[in-house]
Amino acid sequence: MLTYNLPIKQPIESMYLPLTLMYLDDWALVSVSGPDSIKYLQSQLTLDVAKINPAQHYIAAHCNSYGKILSNLRLFYNNNNINYIIRRKILEIQLAEIKKYAIFSKVKFSDSKLLLLGLAGFQAKNILHKIFKMIPDLQLPLVQNDETTILWIKNPIERFIILTTYKKGNFIKEKLMNNKVQFSDSKQWLALDIESGIPVIDPQNIGRFIPQSVNLQILNAINFEKGCYIGQETIARTHYLKTNKHMMYWLEGKTDNLPLANESLEIMVNNRWQCTGRVLASVKLNSGLCWIQVVMKKDIKLNSVIRVQKDENGYFKIKQLPY
């Protein structure tokens, strides 16, 4: 188990984030093995799995037959096997769904026991260079150092996902403590994902949205030219007919009642409050401000006044995502 000797800090906006090590216990790592791995995943995911580069990592979606998202994930090679990272809350549901049609394929899905860490903030890359021989960057977003795999992510600031053993994880922690690192948990990584515009799908929102409604096409998570996969008909038809009416937004403001996943918000229309949207995730920052990731209609006015339901003293504004 990874041990901490210092207190966990509340989430901080990326531009003010000091060197921070995050224990990503709200995410899980799945390993996919077997000779039919690529072929099987190709029939399940929105990404063209057959063309993935071993030195890259990719966002993809796993959908049901109606084209609605069961999970979104980050996919990559790790020690010659396909791995993917998903929210831990949906791990059991996601594994059951993706295994449904695997009975006739030589493929195995397993919950990896590797440790997931996040590193971001001041001089993060330079500090990693003191620990590892190879560090990922824009040209090489994924590298492997013996028992450790490191992923580079561009937004909202340069940050890293570290997959390693618990023994190595404690070694990394001890090394970072010499560089005045602060410790945080999954909430800080969640805040960075919200700021980056990476959708967060938890159990309350499984099967509610097509990939385009949570901006996955902007994140290159959908290949519209690959062969058949579950949900493709709806996803492709929506794309070519341009019938998607929703998108994902990042909101910033204040509230006494942080909304939960799948709750609605309220928007001021003609001097009246009306229900709008579905919340994907929310987090409270150390500044007292709150961030909300929410799916709303595409034609909403960017200067709209929004609040959590019946929160008379609260307010939220739409923030610009990095894409």
From TrEMBL:
Organism's domain of life?
Bacteria
Where is each tRNA-modifying protein YgfZ-like beta-barrel domain found? 244-311
Q: Where is the signal peptide?
A: none
Gene Ontology BP, a term = iron-sulfur cluster assembly
Which NCBIfam families does the entry link to? PRK09559.1, ygfZ_signature
Q: What is this protein called?
A: tRNA-modifying protein YgfZ
* Organism of this sequence: Candidatus Pantoea edessiphila
